[in-house]
Structures are given as C-alpha cells and as structure tokens.
Design brief:
1 helix; single chain; 4-stranded antiparallel sheet; 203 residues; mainly beta; 2% helix
Length: 203
C-alpha cells in the first residue's frame, strides 16, 4: 500500500501486509521510497497509484506532481523506482489546466483496443451561479501504461445539485458489466455516474 508521507514535502512511503485486513507494517519507519529527488522531478510527489504489469514483470507507479502533471515510474521490487516520465499534463486536458488524483485500471473501451484507462481530476468547469473553475473528470487510454491518449472532451462534469460545481478523486466501478465513475463532491459526499460502454456519455 502506498500513501502520502505526512508532514513536510509530499512524498510516497510504503506499508505491507499479508492480507488487506492487515496487520500492516510500515517500511523502514515510514522513510519515503519515492521523493521528487529520487525521481529527479520538480514539485510535490503524491497521490500514488500502483498497478502490476504482468507482461513485463514490473510495477508501474503513477503519481501527481502538484495539480498539473501526472507521472509514472517503474519498479521490479516495489521499493526502488526508476525511469520516471510524464504521462499527462493539465495543459493537454480538454478544459482547464489541471491533472491530478489519477487512478488507473485494466479496462478495454470498445473500439479503442486499449488495455488501460486512467481517470483524472481536472478543472475548468464553469457554472456562473456556483463556480467558474470547478473540478471535473477526464480520462485517457493506453496500450502499455506509458503512452496515453486523451479525447477532446470531459468524461463527467458536476451534474447533481449536491456537487456544488466540483467532483474529484474518480474511481472506476464495474456493476453488472457496466462502467461507473465514483467520486466525491463539494459537500463531502460520494456520488457516481453511469458511463456508456464507449465512455462517450454519462447519466
């Protein structure tokens, strides 16, 4: 399990357990295994999201650099991470300038031929009576987890009255074979939207 290190500059520490329910052991007293210096990048490094790439026998660790860049680093042992690279920037988003709080899944969108999808928190949502720069959700897809393609439109925007112009921290949920995006809103509540199979619309 990878978590933000509390206090000081943002970095990523490690805890391990034999089962999801624990008991959990913090690795080396909470000393970070990923920092901006260890990766050779600038800005805070947080919001860790690891996946295991079985084909290449490696872990891919996705992270946010502040609120504008999403990067990935590789590891064979889950402790030492190398080959850091930027995979998505907020300036490439269909709206706004932000990209962070990412989550990554093995999921194939019909017609894309992809292996992975990434859900991304961004900004740029405009609703004049609530907000002029609210949070909304984008996505991208990839075949190898390293090179990503994003469409020129938002995936899900704040649509419910309780959202108050902001939704963030997207997660993918599959129910009865259909995709949903789960997120939290400005009220501190959890919401969700059902996606079409091709990710072109939401309800």
């Amino acid at each position: 399990s990878y978590t933000d290190e509390s206090g000081g500059a943002k970095s990523i520490a490690l805890a391990t357990a034999p089962a999801p329910e624990g008991p959990w052991t913090v690795y080396q007293g909470g000393a970070p295994v990923i920092t901006k210096d260890s990766l050779g990048v600038s800005g805070a490094v947080n919001a860790p999201w690891p996946i295991w790439d079985k084909e290449n026998n490696r872990m891919l660790m996705y992270y946010s650099q502040g609120a504008a860049i999403i990067g990935v680093a590789e590891s064979a042992d889950g402790v030492t991470f190398t080959n850091a690279k930027t995979v998505f920037e907020g300036k490439s988003a269909p709206e706004g300038t932000q990209a962070y709080q990412q989550s990554v899944y093995e999921y194939t969108i019909p017609g894309k031929g992809n292996k992975y999808i990434m859900l991304i928190t961004g900004n740029g949502y405009k609703e004049t009576d609530v907000t002029t720069n609210g949070k909304q959700i984008y996505y991208a897809w990839s075949n190898d987890g390293l090179t990503w393609t994003a469409p020129d439109r938002v995936l899900v925007y704040p649509d419910a009255p309780g959202d108050k112009g902001n939704i963030a921290s997207p997660r993918l949920l599959i129910k009865d074979g259909e995709p949903y995006v789960v997120y939290h809103n400005s009220n501190g509540n959890i919401g969700y939207s059902k996606l079409s199979a091709d990710f072109s619309t939401f309800t």
